[in-house]
Amino acid sequence: METHPTKTPLLPLHTRPPPQIFQFSANCTLFNKNTLCLVLGPLLCLLTWLFLDLGSGRESDRNLIGVLGWIFEWWISEAVPMPVTSMSPLFLFPVFGVASAGVVAKSYMNDVIALVLGSFILALAIERYNIHRRLALNITEAFCGDPVQPRLLLLGICGTAAFVSMWMSNTAAAVMMMPVATGVLQRLPAEGDGPPEIGRFSKAVVLGVTYSVAVGGMSTLTGTGVNLVLVGMWGTYFPGARPIGFSTWFMFGFPLALLIFFALWAILCFYYVSHKSGSALADYLDKAHLKRELALLGPMSFAEKMILAVFGMLVVLWMTRNITDDIPGWGTLFHGRVSDGTVSVMMATLLFIIPNKKREGEKLMDWSACKHLPFDVLLLLGAGFAIADGVRTTGLADFLSAALSFLGAAPHLALVPLICLVSATLTEFITSNAATATLVSPSLSISPTPSGLVTLTRSC
């Protein structure tokens, strides 16, 4: 029997006395930054309840502002995990008389949440069968060139990342695409061991994937949670306006994303890809390498083909539910009772019905695989919709709208850059994109300039 020698620890072990929990010092467990941020949220709510007087005569308005101060402070400081903070309206709103428990709970499972849930399940299926890697290798092989053309190859990798992120969250797309990008770069020597052009090209690929998933997410409603925050707020505050559907957003977001994508590619080429990069890469990377990677994946299985078929059908149904005012889509057959969320959940359900023909009785998806669903995004969206409903139903929207009436006379050339600056600053230094949109959207939604919602969304 083979024996293994006892491994010595890399660092020496020291026996430490138990911490003095109640020791009043700078290192005291009770007094640290996280504890202060944790207490500050309820403290803001208490001070608002005691001293704020809006003059509206409605106690619910003051209570709502206090609750929002509590929630926003926890979001920004992350004293409590963001998903947990996102659940706090479920108990804070009923306790402070903002809304009943049943009304708040409905915000956490509306049509927009159903749209996101279905698309997340489909994204998990794509990841489960490694379809994203096959797609990336095929597109990259098509763009590689023979001999290798670095600018074209960079365009293929970044374009694939942007395309994948159109149909799932930016984070999931980045997680899927980064191994594909680094797999291509593994054939290249490490920085310092080869020509400097190779090191700069590697940086361009990594930066390109990171930024391309953000740009691609702008194209569709399901690309990023920020777009869905806008749709939910829009439907709450402007019920009489034309709803923003998948095709409506695509017609707006895709041309803009395409323009930004090519600008990004041009900037990366200018800074990182020189005319000498092609000859430097030719010794390490060619189409043969990509073809070998594709051969290792083998032919497409029945499961992969069916998932692609379901995915393609979902996109077609999304795009054709409402086409134009003159050309009605298939949604008119159901007299407006169906939505993009209906289609998303229906197609996701098919994944649990269609067999994958790998094992007897096994389907394309099973519920155990859904444990990786990003429930934090769903809870954050639900909290945003609950806040929007609370601001509207308590009457706080009318009060703030009157207070922000001066914005109606402000020129868009001055207002739009200000919104961009504030939201971009928040997302860079304080909190996430979706949280920023959830924080700032109510103020823009109730102002006389609702077009600021779109500006906020693109800034995030």
TrEMBL record:
Pfam families xrefs: Na_sulph_symp
Protein name: Tonoplast dicarboxylate transporter
Organism: Acorus calamus
Keyword Nucleotide-binding: no
Keyword Membrane: yes
Keyword line: Membrane, Transmembrane, Transmembrane helix
Signal peptide: none
Chief location category: membrane
Residue spans crossing the bilayer: 31-52, 87-105, 112-131, 151-168, 204-237, 249-273, 294-318, 338-354, 375-393, 399-422
GO cellular component terms listed in the entry, alphabetical order: plasma membrane
Record GO terms (molecular function): malate transmembrane transporter activity
Topological category with respect to the lipid bilayer: Multi-pass membrane protein
Cellular localization per UniProt: Membrane
